[in-house]
Design a protein that fits this description.
four-stranded antiparallel sheet, 0% helix
């Protein structure tokens, strides 16, 4: 079982930047794509971004395109979400999740929460105007 721990959240002003990190621990033979989701108070969890195991494929929520960048360092078992030009609407708890993949899926990403196998506990991001 892979365990995930997010870090890097905080309270910032609109226009500021934050870099979230997601550290994975557990069996080293597991290959996985990684996704970031967020949930604001009173709203459903929504997809933000995902990156394939190889790192060659990425996907973003339309409202964060051009502002957020997802990346990963497989040697460190860590994924990142660089968030620039933050807006109050970005305020939410951010969760990272992994989707275990086999060799046929190394380039695949998914925006569907139900396809992810493990989740972190989340990190709060608060953006004030």
């Amino acid at each position: 079982q892979v365990q995930l721990v997010e870090s890097g959240g905080g309270s910032v002003q609109a226009g500021d930047s934050l870099r979230l990190a997601c550290a994975a621990s557990g069996p080293t033979f597991i290959r996985y794509s990684m996704g970031w989701f967020r949930q604001a108070p009173g709203k459903e969890r929504e997809f933000v971004s995902a990156i394939s195991w190889s790192g060659s494929e990425t996907s973003y929520l339309d409202s964060v395109k051009g502002r957020f960048t997802i990346s990963r360092d497989n040697a460190k078992n860590t994924g990142y979400l660089q968030m620039n030009s933050l807006k109050p609407d970005d305020t939410a708890v951010y969760y990272c999740a992994i989707r275990v993949v086999d060799y046929t899926e190394y380039e695949m990403v998914s925006s569907l929460p139900r396809e992810y196998n493990s989740w972190g506990r989340g990190t709060q991001v608060t953006v004030s105007s």
